[in-house]
C-alpha cells in the first residue's frame, strides 16, 4: 500500500526566513497531494493541494512543488510569521485507494 | 455554522467502559471518516463511509463499531475501552465519491482512558 514519509520532524526558522518541508510517496499511481496545517489543540485544516497534472502551485506565501518522477513533493513557506507555527502534514491519495495517507508531520516553530 | 461537528469534545472514562462519539456534517458530502491521532500526532485512518456504506476498515479492533444512520452522520461506538485507546479522534468528510478531494475535519474528541 501507499507509504508517505515526511522530513524533517521538527523545524525551527527565524521569523522572515523560508521553511521547506519534504515528503516522498511510494505509489506511483497517487495523484492528489494535500497539505494540512494543525495549530496546537485545533483540527487539521487544508492549506494547499496539488494534483499530479501540475508541477507547482502557489498561494501567497505558500507554494507546493511536485516531482512525479522522483515521487516527492515539498511545501515552501516564505517570509515566515509567528502564526505559521504549527504541525504540518503532507498526504497522498489516489482515487482507487479510497483513502488519504498522511505523513508523520513536521512541527514548525518560528523564532522571533 | 460548524461544517463538521463532533461531540463530546472531551471524554474521560475508565478502562472497560463503553462510550460513543457522534459526528455530523452539514456540507452535503458523500464520504465521512474517522481518524485517530495519537500522542505523537500520527493521523491514522480508522473507517470510511460513503453514502452510509462502509468503504474502509483499517484493521481496527472490533471493539470499535462505526454507525452511519444517514450520509450526514457517522458515529463511533467503542466497547471495553483500553488504556491504548487514549487519543484524539477526528471525524472528517469529503465531497463526492472520489478520494482525491480535501478532507474537512471536525474539532476532535480527546478521549482519556484511566
Characterize the structure shown:
The complex is a heterodimer of chains A (112) and B (114). Chain A has 112 residues and is mainly beta. Chain A is built from no helices and eleven strands. In chain A, the strands form two sheets. In chain A, strands 2, 4, 5, 9, 10 and 11 form a six-stranded mixed β-sheet that branches. Chain A is globular, with a radius of gyration of 13 Å. The N and C termini of chain A lie far apart (41 Å). In chain A, 34% of the residues are buried. The model of chain A has no long low-confidence stretch (mean pLDDT 94). Chain B has 114 residues and is mostly beta strands. Chain B contains no helices and eleven strands. In chain B, strands 2, 4, 5, 6, 9, 10 and 11 form a seven-stranded mixed β-sheet that branches. In chain B, a hairpin with a 5-residue loop joins strand 4 (31-37) and strand 5. Chain B is globular and about 40 Å long. Chain B starts with a strand and ends with a strand. The model of chain B has no long low-confidence stretch (mean pLDDT 91). Chain A binds chain B through residues 31-32, 34, 36, 38, 42-46, 49, 51, 87, 89, 93-95, 97-102, 104-105, 107, and chain B through 33, 40-45, 48, 55-56, 58, 90, 98-108.
Keywords:
heterodimer, A: 112 residues, mainly beta, 5-stranded antiparallel sheet, B: 114 residues, 11 strands, 0% helix
